[in-house]
Amino acid sequence: MILEALGAAVLGLALAWAAVHRMPDRLPVRGAVLTTGSLGAVFGALLTHGALGPGHVTAVLVGAVAVAAVLLSLLLRPANRRLRRSAAV
Asked: How far is residue 55 from each of residues 19, 45, 50, 51, 59, measured CA to CA in Å?
């Protein structure tokens, strides 16, 4: 379980780092994003491990990355494009 949690934290950190470098203008401060990614992945690993039980390391890591991705997506802000609204109601 310790190695699963450590692996999940590293994967969540890598996912958050990739998000920071791909969309720096749409995310908040780098530290908050990196923390959210790693803690979200550890929580996802704990949740998946609790649901599946021991012996499913690959599935636990996939669940950890999925939860981290969902939490990181909640941090995204809209793009700076102006929305056009139709005048017809």
From this structure: 30, 13, 11, 12, 9
- Report yes or no: 4 and 26 within 8 Å, Cβ to Cβ: no
pTM higher than 0.70: yes
Over pLDDT 90: what percentage of the chain?
81
Report pLDDT digits (tens) over 39-55: 999 999 999 999 999 99
CB 1 within 8 A of CB 54: yes
Q: What pLDDT does residue 1 have?
A: 80
Could you tell me if 64 and 42 are in contact, meaning their C-beta atoms sit under 8 angstroms apart?
A: yes
**Do the beta carbons of residue 65 and residue 11 sit within 8 Å?**
yes
10 Å CB burial of residue 5 (0-12, 13-18, 19+) is middle
